[in-house]
Amino acid sequence: MDSELLTDTFVDLADTMVADFDIIDFLHMLTDRSVALLSASAAGVVLADPRGALRVAAASNEAAGMIELFQVQNDEGPCLECFRTGHSVTVPDLAGPGQQWPQFAAAATAAGFRTVEALPMRLRDQVIGALNLFRVTPGAFDPGDLRIGQALADVATIGLLQERSLRRSETIAEQLQAALNSRVVIEQAKGKLAERSATDMDSAFRMLRDHARNTNQRLTDVARNFVDNPATDFPASPHR
Questions:
Q1: CA distance linking residue 64 with residue 163, whole number of Å
Q2: In the chain, which ranges are continuous DSSP H helix?
C-alpha cells in the first residue's frame, strides 16, 4: 500500500472547511482513493437523503454506479443492509450458492464483479450511507484493508457531517440575522406611525399588522415600505 497516498487521503478527507468545498468531488475522491488503496476493482458511495432514502452519490466507474443504482431501485443488496444495520456486510463470492440477494448477485456478476464489501458511513449511532467496495475476483478482502476502508469511511462521514452542520449553522445564522433586521425595521415603522397618528406603540403595531394581513403582505415589507414612504395611509386598528 502506498503510505504517502494513504496519508494524503486522510488529510484530504478531513479538509472540508475550505471555502470552495465540493461534495461531489469529495465523494469521487473517496471512491477513487478506495480503489487505489484497498485492492478494489471499483467503489461506490450511497448516501441517505433528508427523508432517509438512499441515493447513489458517487462511483469510481460506470459499472459500479449501475450496480449501486440497481440496489437502490430494487431495495436489495449489501449496501442497503449495511445502511440499515450500521454494520459491514461481506459477500465473498457473488457467484456462489445460497445468495441472500439473488437479483443483486446476478446483476453484479453480469457486470463482472465477484466480491463486494459494504462499509457503513457512520458517526456513533448515526449512519448516513455506505462505502461499497467491489472486486472482480472472488474472496474476502484483507482484514487490514477493511480496517483502513472503514477508517476512510469514518473520516469522510465526519467531514460530511461537519460540512452539513456548518451549512445548517450558516442558514440558522442568516435566518436569525434576517429576523433581527426585520425587528429593527418594524420598530422604526411603529415609532413613525405612532408619532404620526398620535397613538401608542402597541396600537401602531396593530395598525401595521392589520394592514399587512388585509393587503396580503409580509409585515416586514409593510414596515419597510412605510419607513421609506411615511405618507402611506393606515386605517385605525379596531383593536383597543
A1: 26
A2: 3-14, 23-37, 62-74, 78-85, 102-110, 143-197, 201-214, 219-228
- The SS3 assignment for 47 reads strand
| Domains detected in the chain | 3-168 (3.30.450.40), 170-228 (1.10.10)
Radius of gyration of the chain (CA): 28
pLDDT digits (tens, 9 = 90+) for 175-207: 556 655 777 888 899 898 988 888 888 788 888
How far apart are the two ends of the chain, measured CA to CA in Å? 79
Identity of the amino acid at 154 = D
Q: What percent of the chain has pLDDT over 90?
A: 40
Residue 209 CB neighbour total at 10 angstroms: 16
Q: Which residue has the cell 469529495?
A: 26
Determine how many CB atoms are found less than 10 A away from the CB of residue 67.
Answer: 26
Contacts 24+ apart (CB under 8 A), 216-221: 219/182, 219/186, 220/182, 220/185, 220/186
Three-state DSSP class for residue 142: coil
Q: Are 160 and 128 in contact (CB under 8 A)?
A: yes
